[in-house]
Design a protein that fits this description.
Length: 468
């Protein structure tokens, strides 16, 4: 016993030094269900985006899906006006901006994108990585200068060509881009924005020549819409195939700092399932149950984000989720591809001020006190959606009200009252009315380039009052 000394076992200092699950472990059905349910919540947005990207990759060239939704792969497709109320590709669309869209893969070469001189017009180019996080600050709120910019993948080490103003890097090779350009709801501004839209573009670096490429987006080809058995937005995640897809998606998207152990934990079950049909069956059954019990409720605003005052909720950590998997998945289910809070703050409500579901059988009023419309440097809007978070067709062709509407009528005391419901409120209130379906609906407020009072919660949206 003489000479015996206490020996220190090295304390891990990095994630790589922490042991993971042992291979070959026996796994009970209950254990597989527990890991599977968490993996489904965590990976749902990643698989959702991967499936959308795959669908876009099958388009032969930039075009319009169903004649209404812009689709492109390693390029951009741009609308020339507000998105059609008929589209169901993405829920919670808005008619405040002109949208563009494109999925990119950055593993072969970078993508160049063009920024025209938008002058005083609000605009933002939202760029999302494979986790649905924004990874760049490009737009009016950031003072971005006109010019050519380059988007590169996580492992790119090339030289920056002459003529490129700046380089932005994604942490994943898979990227979704969504330019948003504000336009007023009148023919004059819709005409004035067209020369700018023609200069908005994305294309591979190999096609960059230092000259602004001009594209007439009104001549895009039309492609048939994909078949879908679901009502509303296309179902981009199939629980029956989720766990067959997840391993490939995880290989494409490296873990964030701190996620290494989580990756190993999930992978240990996926590896076991690859050679054990019973474990794979348990995972598939767990996915179906998680879709029904965990994911589906996120579509309701009452289960989304956190209370923002007066019966409204608001998302948290928009597009900069980190490890906030709850909000990342909730938003991916309810209104995927949101802007960061500094670009857009969102407020949404299913219920009136008494906590009752909004219904087209009733009439509602939303009154902003004098000087209390949403304080923004950009613009604001209030949109009405049906129970599928899509537009409700109506004879006024009106789906939102806000800054873009120059005919809004203010009250004598300087306040502004907007109306929503299925019943016509009267000719004197028609300019301020959002028509609703006969059944359930929701209201969604957007504040683009919000002031500090919105970001810190000092300003709150007004109550939704039921009118008698």
């Amino acid at each position: 016993m003489s000479g015996a000394q206490a020996q220190q076992i090295p304390i891990p200092e990095t994630a790589a030094q922490v042991p993971g699950p042992a291979s070959g472990n026996t796994m009970t059905r209950e254990y597989v269900q527990s890991v599977g349910r968490m993996a489904y919540l965590w990976g749902w947005p990643l698989v959702n985006m991967a499936n959308r990207s795959t669908a876009f990759s099958k388009t032969p060239e930039p075009g319009l899906l169903g004649g209404v939704v812009p689709v492109a792969f390693n390029r951009l497709a741009m609308l020339t006006g507000y998105v059609s109320p008929e589209q169901t590709f993405v829920c919670t669309p808005n008619q405040d901006v002109v949208y563009g869209a494109g999925y990119m893969t950055l593993d072969k070469e970078p993508i160049v994108f063009q920024v025209p001189d938008f002058a005083d017009r609000f605009w933002v180019y939202a760029h999302y990585d494979g986790r649905t996080e924004e990874f760049s600050e490009i737009g009016k709120p950031y003072g971005t200068k006109p010019g050519f910019y380059m988007m590169v993948g996580p492992h790119w080490k090339g030289d920056t060509p002459s003529g490129i103003t700046a380089v932005i890097r994604s942490s994943t090779s898979s990227v979704f881009v969504a330019p948003r350009i504000f336009v007023d709801d009148n023919l004059a501004d819709q005409k004035a924005v067209q020369p700018l839209l023609k200069q908005v573009n994305y294309y591979p670096l190999s096609q960059f020549d230092g000259k602004m490429k001009i594209t007439d987006w009104s001549k895009l080809p039309h492609f048939p819409s994909p078949n879908s058995s679901s009502k509303g937005e296309t179902a981009w995640v199939n629980p029956n195939t989720f766990f067959s897809q997840l391993p490939a998606v995880m290989k494409q998207i490296d873990p964030l700092p701190g996620e290494e152990a989580f990756y190993r934990w999930i992978s240990s079950v996926l590896s076991k399932a690859a050679s054990d049909p019973k474990i794979m069956q348990t995972l598939n059954e767990t996915a179906v149950a998680a879709e029904r019990d965990t994911i589906k409720p996120f579509f309701q605003w009452r289960y989304n984000g956190r209370a923002a005052g007066n019966g409204w909720n608001s998302p948290v950590n928009n597009a900069r989720w980190g490890t906030d998997y709850l909000n990342r998945t909730a938003v991916a289910k309810s209104n995927m591809y949101v802007n960061r809070p500094e670009e857009t703050k969102y407020f949404y409500a299913d219920n009136d001020s008494q906590g009752k579901q909004l219904s087209g059988q009733n009439s509602y009023s939303i009154t902003f006190a004098k000087g209390q419309v949403p304080p923004v440097k950009g613009f604001w809007s209030l949109t009405l959606y049906n129970d599928l978070h899509l537009f409700h067709a109506n004879s006024l062709n009106r789906y939102s009200l806000g800054t873009k509407n120059k005919s809004l009528k203010y009250n004598k005391d300087g306040s502004l009252t907007l109306y929503a419901g299925g019943r016509f409120p009267g000719k004197d209130k028609e300019s301020n009315w959002l028509p609703a379906p006969s059944g359930s609906f929701s209201l969604f407020m957007r504040a683009y380039w919000p002031e500090k009072s919105i970001l810190d919660g000092t300003w709150q949206p007004p109550k939704i009052e039921t009118r008698k």
